[in-house]
Amino acid sequence: METTISTPGAWTYFIGSYAYYLPFVLTSIWAPIALFDLSGKKDLSSSKIYLWALAILIVPIFGGGAYLLFGESGFDKKFRLTAVLGGLAVLLVVWILSILSQI
């Protein structure tokens, strides 16, 4: 049986579900890690802490990732780069596979 756009196969559903849910998974990982690290910061001013917390809570996928990349995080730089850039790379690959699975 041939799979077309009108009759998607199992692979299309599989990749499509990953493409749909992966941003939520990244949000649910980055935001709590960023907020946990931010809660332990004693050397930042109150206004910076409130601004970062607001950014993380208002726009969690970008706020959490931005804090881990550009904020004064206490985590190791290698961990932060792997968590954020690795997550974005996986998201990009899944989106590309999702687009290709519908062709």
From TrEMBL:
It comes from the Bacteria. GO terms for cellular component: plasma membrane. Keywords: Cell membrane, Membrane, Transmembrane, Transmembrane helix. The keyword Cell membrane applies. Residues 33-71 form the Cardiolipin synthase N-terminal domain. Its main location: membrane. The chain crosses the membrane at residues 20-38, 50-70, 82-100. It is found in: Cell membrane. Pfam families: PLDc_N (PF13396). InterPro entries: CLS_N. It is a multi-pass membrane protein. This is Phospholipase. It comes from Leptospira ilyithenensis. The lineage of its organism: Bacteria, Pseudomonadati, Spirochaetota, Spirochaetia, Leptospirales.
